[in-house]
Write a structure and sequence with these properties.
The complex is a heterodimer. Chain A is built from nine helices and seven strands, in the order ββαβββββαααααααα. By secondary structure, chain A is of the alpha+beta class. The chains are: A alpha+beta, B mainly alpha. The structure holds FE2/S2 (inorganic) cluster. Chain A: Belongs to the succinate dehydrogenase/fumarate reductase iron-sulfur protein family.
Chain lengths: 246, 224
């Protein structure tokens, strides 16, 4: 199939960018979206032009690097699908496709479709861990955790830190990301000791990094390629309330 | 205080003041609906209220504080949130959010403007002085609130102004009510959509009951 792409091109962080139009020719429906972009880039290189810069790593939906807003939806909008897992069979011959980078103050564009998502790391550094002596390996079942609790924590831990929640949020808030980390650790015995500092410090880091405030639009939940639920934001709110009540 | 500066703290303040203000509009609505209980009922209700100035003033003060908190943080958060999104997408398709959620600041400001107008109208009697004239003619020794309200809503202009504000209020509540539950951490995954649906119904109920009064006069179901 043949497609018309409108791709955000921006030479560097300080330069103004704009959408440019390219033709993607002879694309197979079995190609992934990133493979389609690879083809377009080969043509660009052959023509002596600068290829489209985009992030990717695993190409199997687990690293969270492939950050693109496709036709107005983060990762293209398919349920639980990252861009690398999006296939061209989801498009039709002759389609126009608009490809933009994540847009948020906290995610400055580096080049074309590549943004700097280090702000999420700063939130993690503010409390997304437990401080404990690792010592020797503990016995498998020394610490008893009920299965539903383990499942709950696992659901939260599915977050791959891709930033689609921020990209889709009308407020550019990273609350879903932050809540997944807070909820995961708050559910488990290892995380309880530092729970109060964690929720305060991580949400403060969220503001300090320039993300917006959550106003319950719930766009993040639909955009999340891992299906993280906004119930974790409710959990984060409960954890925060505990720090107020003391 | 952390509650007044943090992101979740302010969210909780918005939710709690919002719900208390819903409490206020509930009491106000019940008072208003006495208008359907005969020409005298609302006059008696109003006279009763005004016979206890300390209660009225304490009540007004509390409402003022609630509004001040709700409006201040509402505006502050909106400003911060738009600063967090300096560049807009060429195309943005939303999948879950609602018109009500996206327009909170606008419906909020419409409600604020309306409250000022409403106070100037029925409380301070500064605007529409012709329409509030019946208030000064005592009926059985009481101010004729019924006559004042009825005369006001015979004007299509006043009725439309009130109707617009009530529609804005209904939209504001649609997002606000379910948002309250989520913010206080009382929702879980599966309950989310049900809470939203109930919130919508309650919001519509408030809208219909409030707008019933001006419309009843405009269409002569109630007559002065
Ligand atoms: S490239 Fe790793 S998730 Fe898409």
């Amino acid at each position: 199939m043949n497609l018309t792409l409108h791709v955000w091109r921006q030479k560097g962080p300080q330069v103004k960018g704009k959408l440019e139009t390219y033709q993607a020719k002879n694309i197979s429906e079995d190609q992934s979206f990133l493979e389609m972009l690879d083809d377009v880039n080969e043509d660009l290189i052959k023509a002596g032009k600068d290829p489209i810069a985009f992030d990717h790593d695993c190409r199997e939906g687990i690293c969270g690097m492939c950050s693109q807003v496709i036709n107005g939806k983060a990762h293209g909008g398919d349920e639980r699908t990252t861009v690398c897992q999006l296939h061209m069979r989801r498009f039709n011959d002759g389609d126009d496709i608009v490809i933009e980078p994540w847009r948020a103050k906290a995610f400055p564009v580096q080049k074309d479709l590549i943004v700097d998502r280090a702000a999420l790391d700063v939130i993690m550094q503010a409390g997304g861990y437990t401080s404990c002596h690792t010592g020797g390996v503990a016995d498998g079942n020394a610490l008893l955790i009920p299965k539903p609790t383990a499942d709950y924590a696992m659901d939260a831990a599915e977050c791959i830190g891709c930033g689609a929640c921020v990209a889709s949020c009308p407020n550019s808030s990273a609350m879903l990301f932050t809540s997944a980390k807070v909820a995961q650790l708050a559910a488990l015995p290892q995380g309880k000791a530092e729970a109060k500092d964690r929720v305060r410090n991580m949400t403060q880091a969220l503001l300090d990094e320039g993300f917006g405030n959550c106003t319950n639009h719930y766009e993040c939940q639909d955009a999340c390629p891992k299906g993280i639920s906004v119930k974790f934001i409710a959990k984060l709110n409960r954890e925060y309330l505990k720090t107020v009540a003391k | 205080m952390h509650l007044f500066t943090s992101t979740v703290g302010r969210k909780i303040l918005m939710a709690v003041t919002g719900l208390l203000l819903v409490g206020f509009i509930t009491i106000h609505l019940i008072g208003n609906l006495t208008i359907f209980a005969g020409n005298e009922a609302i006059n008696i209700y109003a006279a009763g209220l005004h016979s206890m100035p300390p209660v009225v003033w304490i009540f007004r003060l509390v409402i003022l504080v609630l509004f001040a908190i709700h409006i201040t943080f509402g505006i502050q958060l909106t400003v911060e949130n738009s600063a967090a999104t300096p560049e807009q997408y060429a195309i943005q398709v939303t999948q879950k959010t609602t018109f009500a959620a996206k327009s909170m600041i606008y419906t909020g400001l419409i409600i604020l403007a309306f409250i000022l107008y409403h106070l100037l109208h029925f409380t301070m009697h500064v605007v529409h002085t012709d329409a509030i004239e019946p208030y000064n003619q005592l009926v059985n020794g009481r101010h004729n609130v019924f006559g004042m309200v009825g005369t006001s809503f015979q004007s299509a202009f006043i009725t439309i102004a009130y109707a617009i504000a009530i529609i804005a209020l209904a939209f504001h509540l649609t997002h606000g009510l379910q948002s309250f539950i989520q913010t206080l951490g009382w929702s879980n995954g599966p309950s989310q959509d049900k809470v939203s649906a109930i919130g919508k119904l309650v919001a519509i109920a408030y809208g219909v009951l409030y707008v019933a009064i001006p419309l009843a006069f405009l269409f002569h179901i109630l007559k002065v």
